[in-house]
């Protein structure tokens, strides 16, 4: 699953690369590749200032989680000279295949299982991370997994979460004033007045997941056949949907082509301040949660500096800065209050323990279950495409097949 910055300027690293400290032959170095916008530049500077000795910090922002995952794969490959041209086409950024392997990399929780299975990353040691005990058990459980990448309380610690967000509803307040109600939960997507007025993420886990949640089930339901009403509900929802997209679902909302969209909070927070007609809410029955994690690539020696960086991100005052400046949530308890958060963002960033308790991470599914999700989603979307083609032919005066 991919997440991206819909619009830039989120208070994170704005430069193509941030290099702090002068390079010396024997100077300690920390090389980090991170999701663009997920760490404020001033936090990196504060980390530099907190260290007793000068070190060289290299923080290279990358546009998408998908690119970071591909880079982890590239670092573990040993391509032959005769197929170099073929494999380099899939490298997401320039000459990065010749660069040194980073000490730490941002990865999304959804990608963690694949990274473990493919042996792209190595586990962290609890002893090297002083602040581990301050992390809520729910986050500890998320990153404690066995060698197959599945949750296992007896497993190893594979990552360190440093910020999180959720799947949210964002809607045009002006349009809904005419309807006389405001969206508050997933069930509202099925209400009258929204036919062809919704844009949804083009992902089976998200669309089927929110429908399962509406029916009182889990996002991580393994066997969809146990929910006989699911397909009927998806068909009804499909009638409300104008289109599915994981990249361009906000643009039509901004111009008024759709009235409501479902998307990731990391995208939505970037536009709320610019378009005052838009309001975002986290569904009351719970939603899907995503997390940005620090992982250590396979083959990189464990060192104190990378552990210090993880601990630094978990200090309450630093965690608060990361949360406020990148407009996200923190896995660490902070003293953030409503007054700290811009008014349009309060619905998304204010802590609501009740809703958080009802929300879920999108956990790995067994292959047969994943295929079931994909097949059902493809079936529902095919029905949408067929109806759209029928309407087009009818408008052009062509006989329907």
Automatic annotation (TrEMBL):
Keywords: Coiled coil, Periplasm, Signal, Transport
Domain of life: Bacteria
SUPFAM superfamilies, A to Z: Periplasmic binding protein-like II (SSF53850)
GO molecular function, one term: polyamine binding
CDD domains listed in its UniProt record: PBP2_PotD_PotF_like_1
A GO CC term attached to the entry: periplasmic space
Protein name (record): Extracellular solute-binding protein
Gene Ontology biological process terms in this record: polyamine transport
Gene3D superfamilies in alphabetical order: Periplasmic binding protein-like II
Coiled coil: 220-247
Subcellular location: Periplasm
Protein's organism: Dendronalium phyllosphericum CENA369
InterPro entries: Sperm_putr-bd
């Amino acid at each position: 699953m991919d997440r991206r910055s819909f619009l830039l300027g989120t208070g994170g690293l704005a430069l193509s690369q941030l290099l702090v400290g002068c390079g010396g032959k024997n100077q300690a170095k920390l090389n980090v590749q991170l999701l663009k916008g997920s760490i404020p530049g001033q936090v990196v500077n504060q980390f530099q200032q907190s260290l007793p000795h000068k070190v060289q910090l290299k923080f290279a922002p990358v546009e998408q989680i998908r690119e970071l995952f591909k880079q982890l794969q590239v670092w573990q490959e040993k391509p032959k000279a005769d197929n170099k041209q073929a494999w380099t086409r899939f490298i997401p950024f320039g000459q990065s295949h010749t660069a040194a392997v980073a000490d730490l990399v941002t990865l999304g929780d959804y990608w963690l299982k694949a990274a473990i299975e493919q042996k792209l990353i190595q586990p962290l040691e609890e002893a090297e991370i002083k602040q581990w005990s301050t992390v809520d058990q729910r986050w500890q459980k998320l990153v404690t997994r066995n060698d197959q990448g599945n949750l296992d309380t007896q497993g190893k610690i594979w990552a360190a979460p440093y910020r999180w967000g959720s799947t949210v509803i964002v809607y045009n307040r002006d349009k809904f004033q005419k309807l006389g109600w405001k969206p508050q939960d997933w069930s509202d997507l099925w209400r009258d007045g929204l036919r062809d007025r919704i844009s949804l993420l083009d992902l089976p886990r998200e669309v089927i997941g929110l429908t399962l949640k509406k029916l009182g089930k889990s996002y991580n339901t393994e066997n969809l056949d146990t929910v006989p009403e699911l397909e009927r509900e998806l068909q009804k929802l499909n009638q409300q949907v104008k289109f599915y997209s994981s990249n361009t679902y906000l643009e039509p909302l901004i111009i008024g082509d759709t009235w409501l969209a479902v998307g990731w909070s990391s995208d939505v927070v970037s536009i709320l301040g610019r378009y005052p007609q838009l309001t975002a809410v986290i569904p009351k029955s719970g939603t899907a949660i995503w997390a940005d994690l620090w992982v250590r690539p396979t083959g990189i020696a464990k060192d104190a500096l990378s552990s210090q960086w993880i601990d630094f991100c978990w200090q309450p005052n630093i965690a608060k800065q990361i949360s406020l400046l990148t407009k996200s949530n923190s896995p660490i308890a902070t003293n953030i209050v409503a007054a700290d958060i811009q008014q349009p963002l309060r619905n998304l960033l204010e802590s609501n323990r009740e809703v958080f308790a009802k929300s879920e991470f999108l956990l790995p599914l067994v292959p047969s279950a994943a295929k079931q999700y994909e097949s059902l989603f493809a079936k529902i979307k095919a029905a949408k495409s067929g109806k759209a083609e029928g309407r087009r032919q009818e408008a052009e005066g062509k006989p329907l097949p």
